[in-house]
Amino acid sequence: MAAQQALPLRRRGLRVLGGVLIALVLAAVFGLYTDPDFMILMADQVWACF
């Protein structure tokens, strides 16, 4: 019976961990976009496609 209760807790823990990881990645990407040099680099790369 304890194994049946541990499974939902494990799934909940994995979902929380996944959410935290996603939030960290999004925060890192947002941090890059606040850097003016990165924005110029991205604009140059997009412009190079045309």
Question: What would you say this structure looks like, in words?
Answer:
With 50 residues, this protein is mostly helical. It has helices at residues 2-33, 36-48. It has a domain at 23-50. The radius of gyration is 20 Å and the shape is elongated.
Tag the structure with descriptive keywords.
50 residues; mainly alpha; 2 helices; elongated; membrane; transmembrane; transmembrane helix
CA radius of gyration: 20 Å
How much β-strand is present in the residues? under 5%
Structural class: mainly alpha
Low-confidence stretches: none
**What's the helical proportion of residues?**
over 70%
How many runs of DSSP E, i.e. beta strands? 0
Q: Strand-and-helix sequence, N→C?
A: HH
- Please state the average pLDDT score: 88
Transmembrane segments: 12-33
Keywords: Membrane, Transmembrane, Transmembrane helix
Describe this structure in a few short sentences:
The protein is mostly helical and 50 residues long. It is 90% helix and 0% strand. The protein is elongated and about 55 Å long.
